[in-house]
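Late entry, evening session. Most of the bench is empty. Finally got around to the prediction I had been postponing all week. Sequence below, unchanged from the version circulated by S.P.
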Amino acid sequence: MYREALLGGIDHKALSYISSMEEDRELVGEVIEALLAHLEELKEAGLIDEEKADAIASELKNILENPSPLFEVDAEDVHEAVEIILRQRLGPIEGHLPLGKSRNDHVAAALRLKTKRLLTEQLREIIKLRFVLLERAESYVNVPMPAFTHLQPAQPSTFAHYILAIEEGLADYTRALLTAREIADRSPLGAGAVGGTSVPLHRERLGRSLFSDTVVNTIYSTSSRDFLAVACSIDASLSVFISRIAEDFVVFSTPNFDYLELPSEHLATSSMMPQKRNPATMEVARAWGGEAIGHLTALLTILKGLPTGYNLDMQEANKHAFAILKGTLETLAILRDALSKAKPKEDSMLRDSTVFPIMATDIAERVSLSTGRPYREVYSEIAGIIGQSRSVEEFYKKVREVYGIDAGLEGSLKKPVMGSPNPEKVLEAIGLAKKRLIEDSKVVG
């Protein structure tokens, strides 16, 4: 439709190659909403007869209810398809709608709307997940487990302390995604193709029904996909964060650790080995972190080095953005379900808190503090005792003999510093996290 006057018809192979119709299925609602806002502005500015505007609006709403005819016509994208359908149904009246608009500002508007909405869904899912985490943390304040470095038992912790680490990370991502949503929530409508329009549109009024703010510069309005890059970069980082939690759950649910029992709906069996209970959803969530990195790499590589102004390369970035935004949302929902139903194995966590010498650091610090001796000197002595001991029981016995210290798990947990596994500090942290979460949930909406 657009090319006919200048270039004539198009070869169907070429049309198929450049068309974005498949990806545009994701954006139909947002495309129609932007067109309705544009139509309303034309009416407000007295640039279109009210009767004609109402007729166009009525057909746009019909398309919104049933968009299937859009995908039965030959078109480069959904924007052209909408005009083709409107022309078929309304005749020349349709030609008033494109006044003062370009595909460029309307593509950007639809993408910004979609991004904003998917980010809002993600934020709401994270808020729900954080509530689940805090509820679970309250139940396991006094349940010891080892904390790990290099996947080696390192220091005494509690299951609540571990859960709070996840919640605090998600609190950081909440703030990051709120910023990404704010960046996306700005209207490019009325910016035209790149240099604005001679049609006297009130751009702030035009975008007001769909966005909270306006992208001022018309070049930046239409030629930037930074809002997508920012949102997807945060999502990819969040997906990597989730993949590490998923890895914990894979490891913790093995019979070797036996710290967690995952819900049966998150497990799969072997086609050959009847005893297997494979942590299927956590493995896919772990893999999603890698997929998100791949999609982000593709998106950024497509955008890298493009000249200022709209380029059709940008269209090819959309499929990767949708994959990241939707995949991250889906993975968050899966993680929330798994976390809410997983059963901690308290006996196994307590076992590993006592069969490994994870109180060695606390012993060395106590000796250094009580004697005034250099910590490194005491550290070396403790390391030597561990090396000479054939069991953890022998190690703790020698500590009693040499230093007169009875190593106890409860005492080792009661560290005085903020954010430690000390049950009192954990309860304080839960209280602070609840306040922060309530504030965040109000902002998310």
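Two things to note before I forget:
Residues 352-444 form one domain.
The chain has three domains: 4-99, 114-137+152-345, 352-444.
Will write this up properly tomorrow.
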